[in-house]
Amino acid sequence: MRYGIIADVHANREALEAVLACLGRQLIDRYLCCGDLVGYGPDPNACVEAVKKLDGLAIVPGNHDLAACKLRDTNAFNEYARKALVWTWQTLELSHQIWLSELPRTYRSFDIMLVHGSPRSPIDEYMFSVDHYEINRPLLNVPFTFVGHTHVPVVFGPDGLTTPQPEKPVVLADAGPWVLNPGSVGQPRDKNADASCAVFDTATREFTVHRCPYDITATQQKMRAARLPALLIERLSWGD
Ligand code: ZN
Asked: What is the per-residue pLDDT for 133?
């Protein structure tokens, strides 16, 4: 089975299209999405529609998704995110809000789990460090857990933390459990502005991060037209 994994699309249509074109060349059997389809970016409806159509999709919601359908208090967000969320809930079609609100917070099959944040706090906890891996370890009852939320690609395993380099497969040993973050499609924060995604092949046990250049200027122009906060527009150029 070859999984195509995306997270933190954040309503960035140009980045999503670049990533789906890249994954389309990778013989993907099933797509996994670790949440935050919307928030920050200018194209929430188009992004929900594109992701809904993906083959064999398994998806969980993120904190921005739940806030965009008014299931979260926006006071928990910083002022830039909050402004973008108000714009998003005015823009996002009701049918998409209902779809997002009904997604399971955790997705589990016999060998994989998906959460936006972490197993013990599926919506909110950031898995940045080995400490987060260790504290969640009792809940890692499948070999492979996929997360998003930090916007930084990472591999956690029994030997600690690895930062996967683009196009360089990380082979996952039999001993796990593994926690895998594909990075962010629509708002990368690892100082690389290219959209991020990953492929996981269960036969070879290779997890490979791919970085996909996209038309950042086009996204930024739409954000300006929608009067989204300047900081959110500028940070796309830095990838931070
Ligand atoms: Zn996010």
From this structure: 98
- Residue 92 DSSP class: S
Instruction: Compute, in angstroms, the gap from residue 211 CA to the centroid of ligand 1.
Output: 17
CA distance 124 to 66: 11
Cα radius of gyration (the chain): 16
Note the pLDDT of residue 120: 98
Mention every residue, 6+ apart, whose C-beta is less than 8 A from residue 213: 18, 194, 195
Tell me which amino acid residue 10 is.
H
What pLDDT does 146 receive? 98
Phi-psi region of 125 (alpha: psi -120 to 50; beta: other; left: phi over 0): beta
Q: Which residues of the chain have pLDDT under 50?
A: none
Q: How far is the CA of 45 from the centre of ligand 1 (A)?
A: 17
Contact 148, 36 (CB under 8 A): yes
Residue 142's pLDDT is 97
* pLDDT on residue 123: 97
Report how far ligand 1's centroid is from the alpha carbon of 238 (Å). Answer: 16
Measure the CA–CA gap between 42 and 202, rounded to whole angstroms.
35
Cβ-proximal residues to 131 (8 Å cutoff; 6+ apart), any chain: none
> What is the 158 CA–ligand 1 centroid distance (Å)?
26
Q: What was the pLDDT predicted at 139?
A: 98
